[in-house]
């Protein structure tokens, strides 16, 4: 009887999860599945928009070969520097979001106001707004120019790494504006840890630093992974992304092939991050 009740509770839990996913699944099937599938078909064709309609000529893998081998420099010259920027920016956003969420979880006057301050830029700043700010040089921190940080970085690092790092630092303020979602997720994760655990740690004489490494960080592991995935996807679709700008309506077949190749790069990048994350967090998972 107990086993039957447990299985029944698990079934109910699965149905609840399915109901939460149902709106997204229905929306995906109605509005996204066909365009995504059609773009994959188009990537194997040369598309011409005529007055009588759309003309499609099958080209096989020619569009993919052209991007990867014939004119691959256009793709690689933009992709490789951006990957270096992403490797630098992902830890910055995650650490910044985690620290801000821990501070916002504390009780102090005006806490709701500051929570709104960190999240509102996500709502109000569109791609065009971000591009305009960056073009005006409003995303960098003043001390970079004041203390000539660029010259120090160029002297210490090779040009291939100094350039993307300076590109990130020149727009660091605007990129951190997009950390609102990560802060919100970390804040929700922090609240899943019972206050009684911290109270017991204080009674046992644990310092705040020990509490962070022994309680907070292990408890936030699932949310760190979630935010890592979100940050990767967000950065790879950021308005200033140089590869996204290559996808246009001038050549539908070539642009579709480029988009699918770029999707493959993102997928591989996510898989690498999954492997690295699982190995780095294995001690914390075993401790929990």
Outline of the structure:
This protein is mainly α and 288 residues long.
How would you describe this structure to a colleague?
By secondary structure, this protein is mainly alpha-helical. It is 76% helix and 4% strand. It contains 15 helices and 2 strands. It has helices at residues 2-42, 62-70, 72-104, 111-124, 127-135, 142-146, 149-156, 159-170, 172-177, 180-190, 195-203, 208-219, 221-236, 252-280, 282-287, and strands at 45-50, 53-58. A hairpin with a 2-residue loop joins strand 1 (45-50) and strand 2. The model has no long low-confidence stretch (mean pLDDT 78).
Outline the secondary-structure elements.
Blueprint lengths: L1 H41 L2 E6 L2 E6 L3 H9 L1 H33 L6 H14 L2 H9 L6 H5 L2 H8 L2 H12 L1 H6 L2 H11 L4 H9 L4 H12 L1 H16 L15 H29 L1 H6 L1
Helix pairs in contact: 2-3, 3-8, 3-10, 3-13, 4-10, 7-8, 10-13, 13-14
Features:
288 residues, mainly alpha, 4% strand, globular
Widest β-sheet, arrangement of strands: 1-2
Overall pLDDT: 78
- Total beta strand runs: 2
Order of helices and strands: HEEHHHHHHHHHHHHHH
Please work out how many helical segments DSSP would assign. Answer: 15
Structural class: mainly alpha
- Uncertain spans: none
The first-to-last residue Cα distance is 31 Å
* Global geometry: globular
Provide the helix percentage.
over 70%
* Cα-atom radius of gyration: 24 Å
């Amino acid at each position: 009887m107990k086993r039957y009740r447990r299985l029944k509770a698990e079934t109910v839990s699965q149905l609840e999860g399915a109901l939460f996913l149902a709106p997204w699944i229905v929306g995906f099937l109605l509005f996204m599945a066909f365009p995504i599938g059609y773009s994959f078909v188009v990537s194997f064709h040369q598309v011409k928009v005529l007055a009588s309609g759309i003309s499609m000529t099958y080209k096989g893998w020619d569009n993919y070969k052209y991007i990867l081998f014939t004119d691959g420099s256009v793709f690689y010259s933009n992709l490789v520097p951006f990957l270096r920027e992403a490797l630098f920016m992902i830890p910055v956003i995650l650490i910044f979001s985690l620290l801000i969420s821990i501070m916002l979880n504390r009780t102090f006057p005006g806490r709701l106001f500051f929570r709104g301050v960190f999240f509102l830029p996500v709502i109000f700043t569109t791609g065009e707004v971000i591009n305009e700010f960056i073009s005006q040089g409003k995303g960098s921190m003043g001390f970079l120019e004041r203390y000539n940080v660029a010259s120090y970085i160029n002297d210490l690092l090779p040009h291939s790494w100094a350039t993307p790092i300076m590109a990130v630092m020149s727009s660091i303020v605007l990129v951190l504006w997009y950390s609102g979602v990560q802060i919100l997720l970390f804040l929700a994760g922090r609240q899943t840890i019972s206050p009684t655990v911290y109270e017991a740690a204080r009674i046992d004489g644990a310092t705040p630093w020990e509490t962070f490494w022994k309680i907070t960080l292990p408890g936030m592991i699932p949310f760190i992974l979630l935010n890592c995935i979100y940050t990767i996807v967000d950065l790879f679709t950021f308005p200033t992304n140089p590869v996204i700008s290559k996808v246009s309506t001038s050549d539908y077949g070539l642009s579709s092939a480029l988009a699918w190749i770029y999707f493959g790069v993102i997928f591989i990048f996510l898989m690498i991050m999954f492997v690295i994350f699982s190995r780095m967090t294995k001690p914390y998972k075993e401790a929990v």
